[in-house]
User: Fold NADP-dependent oxidoreductase from Photobacterium atrarenae.
Amino acid sequence: MKSQEIHLASRPQGTPTADNFSLIERELAPLQDGQVLIQNLWMSVDPYMRGRMIDRASYVPPFQLNHVLEGGAIGEIIESRNDQWPVGTKVSHMQGWRSHAICDGQGLTAIPATSLPLQSFLGIMGMPGMTAWTGLFRIAELKPGDTVFVSAASGAVGSIACQLAKLQGCTVIGSVGSDEKAESLKALDIDAVINYKTAGDLTQALAQAAPQGVDVYFENVGGEHLEAALNNMNEFGRITVCGMISQYNATEPQPGPSNIGMLIVKKLKMQGFIVFDHWQHYGDFAAQMGQWISEGKIKWDETIYEGLAQAPEAFIGLFEGKNKGKMLVKL
Amino acid sequence: MKSQEIHLASRPQGTPTADNFSLIERELAPLQDGQVLIQNLWMSVDPYMRGRMIDRASYVPPFQLNHVLEGGAIGEIIESRNDQWPVGTKVSHMQGWRSHAICDGQGLTAIPATSLPLQSFLGIMGMPGMTAWTGLFRIAELKPGDTVFVSAASGAVGSIACQLAKLQGCTVIGSVGSDEKAESLKALDIDAVINYKTAGDLTQALAQAAPQGVDVYFENVGGEHLEAALNNMNEFGRITVCGMISQYNATEPQPGPSNIGMLIVKKLKMQGFIVFDHWQHYGDFAAQMGQWISEGKIKWDETIYEGLAQAPEAFIGLFEGKNKGKMLVKL
Assistant:
């Protein structure tokens, strides 16, 4: 059995380019006892993967040069030497960026039988949905009536965060990078949308959109967005720090917010998180989210690239704002 | 009755100078029913007062030009037309920067009868002590065994924070701005002291002092100190943001920490606070602190300037590191 894999050919300097990736075909070893062979059907590309392409000491080891990349994927077991994981089982796992994966059963999650599309378990029902839920409820302690500002608001996480906050009776302002994205966000009944590329001074734009001030900022972008949020936060506001995509491709250190002293003046809490630390609450999340979806209370977009060879383009597209909602690769 | 008062003569540009202050003598009006006349005995100068010298919208109104300044003080009631506040009562209040104050009884706190020196209620038993306690226990959720980094560690708040953390069984590293201050901090059995003026790269100096990493950073300074702390924090660390004295005299916006993304990578919580929001817990604080003091478990320094006319110099001295422990003016 041959597997196709995307390897990290070189470490990106700045924004990743196609040259940083290579498509390799490799003969897989026969299965050993306890192992299963998975044919991947969908894979996820996510901004956080950029961090693992840098060679630095971190709590997650960096990707290795000339080795296959990793990331969320959904596949079907097509061969099994493990009784717990029979052939035909659909599973989510972390061995993406390849057509086939061999696994010993560790780190597999069976996809439950639902009417939801399979790939939703890489999006609304998976890591991005769980990230929005965790950031709002477990980190920011969202309360009904809060004014919530979400950056990258039409992204996989941001668009869900906007809708979850609306479901709680919050006023929601989102920022996006195109008028087209602004339109689709407005269609979700978000209270106000800022196109940060055309809005001019972001602090003023946010002040106009939220004259009552911001209680919760869901941070996906960093840089000017964080400065604008700090300038507009209300006393005792909470900033849930999910990502800072504007910083990921920087080739030298970027100055932080010049108004970080607002943390004191306004008595703010700013907290970073990584969703995998909260995974023990996935059941609570999935039950709530499944309910909201079944009631038609939440919608989501997908941007789909076809074929493993397109995975690098899909990934690079994340930093060019090419996705509406979840960026996916269909294998 | 005449009162001497320090007025704000002009708004400081950068570090305050003597020219920004003027000493005025003013005739006080006779007391009305319900009022008391206080002769001030001690007054406090604190870094936070610098913020109120700027003319900007904030949650606390700025000091007005050619009006008397305000701040913590302790005095004795020498005339009273209020039965609740008899002559001879020692009180703490917020009408400092003047020799005599007229008050209607609001905002007065009677100094309890103890063997402690009166001025300790502007220091260890007052706002700075309560600030250290609040920042460690209510904001940073200090746990025994934590490694704690305190900046401005020989200051009024920092030196108490260091000792409170030691009392909890923590490992404590302090940063100070002179070898003399380092020596006095070491005399308090603090585990390691960094003289930031001679230590070179602060990230490396902190890494050497805390090879196990930092769980709690008590932030009094900002700038490079915050960057160094972020670089050395452990996962799930907490940064309690009490002050950023390095920023207060800046004449233009200072770049924030270039490594603010560490909040995500390390899942950090960073929270600003102002002690007055927590004043309902003063009784708990005072009981615990009084106990520790009576057991000889905590020590404090004072730096005393004599006479109201010296108050501006005492205040300016805060930004030049002239105080060990609490900076006070004896009237």
